[in-house]
Amino acid sequence: MSELSGYTVGVTADRRRDELAALLERRGARVVIAPALRIVPLHDDSQLREATRQCLDNPPDVVVANTGIGMRGWLEAAEGWGLADPLRMVLGDAYIVARGPKARGAVRAAGLQDQWSPDAESCDECLAHLLRRGVSGQVIAVQLHGEQQPEFSAALRASGAEVIEVPVYRWAPPLDSAPLHRLVDLVSSRLVDAITFTSAPAVAALLAAAGTGADGMLDAMRSDVLAACVGPVTAAPLIRQGIPVVAPARARLGALVRAIVDELPQRAVSLNVAGHELVMRGHAAIVDGELRPLAPAPMAVLRALAAVPGKVRSRASLLPALPRGADEHAVEMAVARLRAGLGDPGFVQTVVKRGYRLPVD
Questions:
Q1: Can you give the pTM of this predicted structure?
Q2: What is the rounded CA–CA span in Å between residue 181 and residue 197?
């Protein structure tokens, strides 16, 4: 067994989804990939080219580098237009604020030098720093990524700065929305144990995809489904919804996976049943150290019985735990499959005319 064996994790990222999925799978997790958004290069790069021309004609005093991919994309586009060297010269004379380590890495890889970065990698910190430093009469180029930053730019303009917004990429809905809608159903049904987010817009996109079912999905994330975010900026919209969030101290995919590894196993339920050690993990049970994956219905019955260990649950009381449209016969079938899956019929005891129980030691 690995650290995440038995657990199912949803991935909403697009650009680095395969990398994140591989990190989780190497630790034993079952992964459901459902990109909430996709990053699309601007179909018409006239806006980016015009912003670049503005920077060359009116060199900025300050450059805000928001993301690594955005800075690299900007410089690569300038290379294609034959403007890379003039752009580097202009940027090299500016005071560069790198919002996070990826942006800083892209800046330095281009042969430039950043002068300041916030500790929490947040736009609010960047804005506060610039306002403290003073921006009146200055030209500030803000490299955008995915979406506009109207409040950020408006605050700079209100303090007397001229702002050049540099749009490099934009967010768009996924080409196929079916995986995202399926993930919403899985979260609402508590059939995933954790869901990962690498950007705040992905959170908004997931809520939009949930539609009228958003309340049920949010309830699941407030209780049973772990919300794991790559950093505080990504976590902010979930926190506003009252959802507890785990986020690593450093905004890295490896650190995000480690946070999940640290958290999920702590949620496992352990019991001694019929002379065996039984541990429940996500979609699987561990019996005396052996991982035994279970289908959703048997696993739901096991969790319902484990919620009141040793006590009898009637067939009628177990019905709500099963998928919609089930009847008492479906409960009997789920119990039979549960016994077979656990490898010992003694795990679930039938109490005649009353129901079922786990004979805990």
A1: 0.78
A2: 16
